[in-house]
Design a protein that fits this description.
The structure holds 2 protein chains of 2 kinds.
Chain A (H helix, E strand, L loop, with lengths): L2 E5 L3 E2 L5 E8 L8 E6 L5 E7 L6 E3 L7 E6 L4 E6 L8 E8 L8 E4 L3 E5 L2
Parallel strand pairs in A: 2-11
Antiparallel strand pairs in A: 1-3, 3-8, 4-5, 4-9, 5-6, 7-8, 9-10, 9-11
Chain B lengths: L8 E4 L5 E6 L12 E5 L6 E4 L13 E6 L2 E6 L8 E9 L4 E4 L3 E5 L1
Parallel strand pairs in B: 1-9
Antiparallel strand pairs in B: 2-6, 3-4, 3-7, 5-6, 7-8, 7-9
Classes of the chains: A mainly beta, B mainly beta.
Amino acid sequence: EVQLVESGGTLVQPGRSLRLSCAASGFIFNDYVMNWVRQVPGKGLEWVSAISWNSGRIGYADSVKGRFTISRDNAKNSVYLQMTSLRAEDTAIYYCAKGHDSSGYGYFDYWGQGTLVTVSS
Amino acid sequence: QSVLTQPPSVSGAPGQRVTISCTGSSSNFGTGYDVHWYQQLPGTAPKLLIYGNSNRPSGVPDRFSGSKSGTSASLAITGLQAEDEADYYCQSYDFSLSGSVFGGGTKLTVL
């Protein structure tokens, strides 16, 4: 059974940094692209970032480019999102989502339960 | 503004058929990238509903169907049931943005 478990969400002050983690199980982790998708409570979904199986291809939404860094550790079956210079508008539930293949052009076949990041003073 | 455009809300009575539209552009649907649909029940994570324009993952009832033509796509739900009340999102890949994009979401209300 595929499982994605996010952690690291918390209340953080504007301008500070935070690292989210996603632990994966139930599939061959290093065969797939992994993504982060966020959702402001009560609002729509926004793709944040993606990383290929070997970290050779990485993409970011314009809204986080230069502030967020995605990484993965295939030995630990984990993907991370390092968030810096956090802003109030980064407040959201952050979901880890598995890409359906290694291309990064497709869909997200499994999602975690999400972790809430609140940016506020 | 979302890259993919969906109506904010649709509604229908139990047993009826509803459709949700998703309009893209030349940099996503028009380039040939597929559309995918997700269902998000209240308080839960999104769940894949339709992939590759019209394919259903195992376990998704055949009441749900999808289609895509040119720069438009749609999700149809027939035999509407109370448990279908949820938010629905379309998603694709955008060549000019070099990333995935979502529609703004459509709230389905079962009357």
